[in-house]
């Protein structure tokens, strides 16, 4: 109550700033505090109208879903009608299939009214999501969904727009010329041609970040040949390419995220490049040697990165190429994240990346996130039971740079313990070992916690290490 009294002495303008920093759903909840707060939350500068606030994804009764969709539209319509502030920073609208099924239930006019409202308030960040929550996010799932809505013409003329997100919303790239202030663009569940991507990059000269998610009908991806390109961040997530060929020439790029099929990558980045996040969908019957060499070329082209995150598939494939031990030229990685099970199939891949990262300072293990290949054959003979105990390969970073190891979602499987014990035994400069026990499995939390405690009984190579378990 004392805290509420202190808030009550603040002017409405300051409280409005505080509320605008909250997620929209939390801002709405402040209305229960008093009548004064009802007016304050309605002045928030960050508006998020999401169908999921009203319609549960698991609801199967179509009549109930239709009724709740109607309630949501009424709420959105009433909110924008009563909104009195002259400007807003962010307007996010999420509503699946606005056109309905053709037999009624469409809300095109209401959705267009919401978008006109946002533009009339000089919105800086506009997010429109008309995708369906049931759509798969996996690559090569055979699902290429047609866009559910057309971007209204009024948006193309909004010169002050800085950030735009369009999910399942058809757009005309040629009309983006007036969006001179646009810095961030995110496209998802859209049919996008290579010509449209070129148009977007050419017309939006201020663009700094581009994200493509589940886009389809892209022949290939080619970015470059533009002396004015400012692109700093590029994310490609589970897009369906007609040809898996990606060519990126972006001198200002600092961040690259790619999730999808393995293809032929041509990456040209400068020393300003900082971070790469890589995840690959690889079929069980893949050609390991060919894919390994493609991944090797990609890693080699991203050598300036100080932060690198990779998936289990890369760990299982990368040591099967022409260079099975390490990269010929060392990576510049200082923080390496492995999404892994520490499964025997991954042992040589883990060793490969550690060998290739002589400057590594932080190693993060995100455990339990792996697709294991059943037909895996190691590049060299291996004794699974004693691999880490008898591994005599001298990994430079363990003795010269590695200071922190983080293990997340720890369950205490044998291979998890053996690998962490190996790092403790050889990590001469280790200062911190942080273990976060898997909290999703509440019934076994104490068991996992007890297994983590076993690592405290191992004599470490470093005399200055602290082990934290939570």
From TrEMBL:
InterPro entries the record matches: F-box-like_dom_sf, F-box_dom, FBD, FBL13/AtMIF1-like, LRR_At1g61320_AtMIF1, LRR_dom_sf
Gene3D superfamilies to which the protein is assigned, alphabetical: Ribonuclease Inhibitor (3.80.10.10)
Residue ranges of every copy of the At1g61320/AtMIF1 LRR domain listed in the record: 159-369
Domain FBD: 395-435
Residue span, F-box domain: 8-42
Residue ranges of the TM segments: none
Name this protein carries in UniProt: F-box protein At3g62230-like
Species for this entry: Momordica charantia
